[in-house]
Write a structure and sequence with these properties.
Layout lengths: L6 H14 L12 H8 L3 H13 L3 E4 L3 E4 L4 E4 L6 H7 L4 E12 L2 H7 L3 E11 L2 E11 H4 L4 H6 L10 E12 L2 H7 L6 E11 L4 E10 L3 E4 L19
Parallel strand pairs: 3-10
Antiparallel strand pairs: 1-2, 4-5, 5-6, 6-9, 7-8, 8-9
Length: 245
Amino acid sequence: MFVRTIRYQMIADDLRRRVAAGEFEQRGVLPSEAELSSTYEASRVTIRRALEALRAEGLVESRQGFGWLVSGEPLRQDLSRLATLEGQLAAAGVRSERRIVSFGFVTAPARVRELLNERTVLEVRRTNLADGRPFAVVTVWCPEELGSSLSRDDVARASFLEQLGVGLGGATQTIGADAASESDAALLGVPAGSPVLVAERITRNMDGRPVLVSEHVFPAHRTKFTVELPVDDGLLNPTGMRLVD
């Protein structure tokens, strides 16, 4: 008996095969509906039906600003203590890797100069990968005096927190939402303008002086931050919150 295969089912079957083969694993983002329409020579309506079929199976999901993604649990980070990305990923059983994008001494950007009170700083830009997929774009600025003993290989091997050679007294981290710049999007493998979480971290020495400034850019669909909020004297007002003009 002849069984007619509907076009969207054929496309869904092929996309299912490609997802299972790990074709989209590196980025976690599927081609756009327009690109899939061109690849399969099918209408956008047909492509959407195929994707909806895969969503019903839990294989893919859609997110505003990203399009269609391979389904997966976001990685969680604990904000209750100062720790490295690698340490947090390892604790979650995730394989981590860092790739240095740029390394050099530069004139400090205005914000960094204000915080570190330094004209020249070591600037290191890198990508962090989690199980082989881009997880964060991190830029770190360090005073020239502290950074002069570090090489590109050093910062590729381990975190600044482990190599500064000064006692650390803590850090202040501020997290906000933004849209991915073209350069960050290219490194993260997401569309430019897609949602990202941006964390600015100011790390201090034991005397309370800032010794590191860093910016961490995370694709919003892959990251969740968790923090414990103990009740203080019965007051249930959120702490650490401020309005942005």
